[in-house]
Amino acid sequence: MIELSGAGWALTILPALGGAIGALRHKGIDILRPTADGATDPLQSACFPLVPYANRIAGGRFSFGGRQVALPLNFGDHPNTLHGFGWQRAWDVVEAGADRARLAHVHDGGGGWPWRYRAEQSFELGEDGLRVTLTLANAAREPMPAGIGLHPYFAIHAGTRLSLNAARVWLTDDDQIPKEAAAAGYFGDWASGASISDAGFIDHSYEGWDGLATLDRGDRIVRLTGEGARDLHLFHPEGESFCCLEPVSHLPDAFNRPDAVFDLLPPGGSLALTIRIAVEHH
User: Fold this and answer.
1) What is the pLDDT of residues 35-49, one digit of tens each?
2) In angstroms, what CA-CA distances link 169 with 10, 18, 186, 198?
3) Would the pTM of this model clear 0.85, i.e. be above it?
């Protein structure tokens, strides 16, 4: 475990658990849901990386450049593959200091994803909060379809209000694959600020996110900003004390959708996504 601190912030990082964040606290208060002691699943962590694709790929299959790609189904009996490879791999520690750290994950081209790549995460604490940058570089000799994201679990309380702006939200089929677009306010009037703690089950992507989301917890406002994230995936399991605001570079199942936008990295090309988490007191 790596422990960073600075400017009233404290961060723990768990390189062996998918390069995940263990906890993020500001002046002793949990901003992200803390990882339970002894956790062995990144889904129990405070945040984990999505690389080399984000969220779901239907059936774990897609075609690209005349090649049929079959990925392992990595989420129990779920019919789709989920979140990429990085979250289920140990990450190497490249650098660790008092208020910053850097991890790396290298994929050799096996395991169903035929392209070699290198991913890095950098973490930095400062007066303006936590900054995390995730990068993905294509180490193969041919173009690689690519996507990245981060999956933070934000702590919420009764009456916590969510604010965000996006162009639309995607409704899904029974397997959580996007099916049709709806108005961004379909699940809640997030543009004006609505209670997320009272919302029902949500596991949907907001396309055309403007890069800012806030959670008003009453005593403080938690601010999330994202750079390099076209979309924001919102996960709220009903009755839980957290919600996930996941900045991502593409929609779920983008590689199978002719109208979807995702990145195509040439050999040696790279992709980056940065989030910042800050706190404002009322």
Assistant:
1) 999 999 999 999 999
2) 34, 29, 7, 19
3) yes
